[in-house]
Amino acid sequence: MQIVITGGAGFIGGNLARVLAEQPHVTRIRVVDNLSTGDKANLGGLDVDFFEGDVQDAALLDQAFRGADAVVHLAALPSVPRSLQDPLASHHANATGTLQVLESARRAGGPHVIAASSSSVYGANPHLPKHEDLATAPMSPYAVTKLTTEAYLSAYHHSFGLPVLPFRFFNVYGPGQRADHPYAAVIPKWISAALSGEPVTIHGDGTQTRDFTYVGTVCHVLTAALLHRVMDPRPVNLAFGTRTSLLDLITEIESATGQLTGREHKALRTGDVPHSQADSARLRALFPTVTPQPIHEGIATAVGWFRSAVGVTASS
Ligand code: NAD
Predict the structure, then answer these.
(1) What was the pLDDT predicted at 242?
(2) Is pTM beyond 0.90 here?
(3) For ligand 1, atom 17: residue with the closest CA
(4) Do domains 2-172+214-238 and 177-210+241-278+294-310 have the same CATH topology?
(5) CATH second-level architecture of 177-210+241-278+294-310?
(6) 1.20.1050.80, 1.10.10.60, 3.40.50.300, 3.40.50.720: CATH of 2-172+214-238
(7) pLDDT for the residue numbered 273
(8) Does ligand 1 lie within 6 Å of residue 76's CB atom?
(9) Does residue 278 contact residue 129 with C-beta atoms inside 8 Å?
(10) How many angstroms is it from 309 CA to the middle of ligand 1?
(11) Which of 132, 207, 283, 303 has the greatest CB tally within 10 Å of its CB?
(12) Sign of CA dihedral 96, 150, 48, 90
């Protein structure tokens, strides 16, 4: 199998490339990435064909998709706050980028296209757990771009018979997720703060909950979907229905780092949802052998990665 990963130099893409490189059926991995948030270091030591550039570049995609069996479309500006600051940039990268990926896939003869959507599409719908058939209610331009991604996949399936599978990722975390950029996610930011002896910043009172999903589990599901050619134009939640509050997350980080952290509270951020928990019935039916990684194990692995790869060690 020849597989293209757009956004393959990013956090999830780099982890996925590493897992796919171990699969005997995968003969070639190609990565399309403009390195806007990603880093080639995430692909260090792997034998991949790298196509540096934007997913809005049709000619580049046509080159990368030639002869491909599958495309895992992860390239995006993956941040709610960033989309509030520059909605058009998010729209271009995430929505127009997806349309270009689908057009190029169509020209390439219809490889299997798996794409990353997000739990943010549930937005203001308060119902828990989040079942895929719930009404979507985006609270940010980012969420709109992800809903658009799903809608385009569905349209290309129904109009052109393209084999597709949209996944709604929840809060993915683990090795390779960095803290050193302005839109970093909460887990790497807090691990980095704990190891540096700095306080963590909590937006709100910390009772908000998230369905944190370990990146190794996400890659396991994506790999199974690729190898078994799982196709469905309806979105599938990629999370297991676990709920961890931000306050409990701090306790997990303190336990894994051996550092007690100070806490600073700030106002809630626009676009952030109070609670997020997946209904995982559809995921479990499609991938019955996949089991989630308990959060304390996943956090311990992420802390280990920070210590070794990023070089942040606990201050004395
Ligand atoms: P990331 O920022 O680490 O990876 C995104 C990659 O895409 C980067 O390597 C970046 O350089 C590349 N990229 C961005 N815009 C591009 C463009 N226009 N053309 C080519 N490459 C481009 O983010 P991630 O956490 O690995 O996220 C991967 C995907 O999963 C994204 O689509 C994101 O929206 C989605 N997602 C992630 C999470 C999460 O918790 N990490 C949750 C929900 C959805």
Answers:
(1) 94
(2) yes
(3) 54
(4) no
(5) Alpha-Beta Complex (3.90)
(6) 3.40.50.720
(7) 80
(8) yes
(9) yes
(10) 20
(11) 303
(12) positive
Q: Is the CB of 37 under 6 A from ligand 1?
A: yes
Please report where in the chains the tokens 């309806």 appear, as a residue.
Answer: 234
Pairing of strands 200-203, 209-210: unpaired
- What ranges do the domains of the chain cover? 2-172+214-238, 177-210+241-278+294-310
Q: What are phi and psi of 112, to 5 degrees?
A: -65, 125
What is the number of the ligand 1 atom nearest to the C-alpha of 117?
44
Pairing of strands 209-210, 244-245: antiparallel
CA distance 68 to 91: 26
- According to the model, what pLDDT value does residue 312 have? 64
Confidence of residue 180 (pLDDT cuts 50, 70, 90): confident
Tens-place pLDDT, residues 189-235:
999 999 999 999 999 999 999 999 999 999 999 999 999 999 999 99
Residue 54 CB less than 6 A away from ligand 1? yes
Mean local confidence (pLDDT), 172-181: 93
Q: How deeply is 8 buried, as exposed, middle or buried, from its count of CB atoms within 10 A (0-12, 13-18, 19+)?
A: buried
* Most distant CA pair in the chain, distance: 61
Model ipTM? 0.99
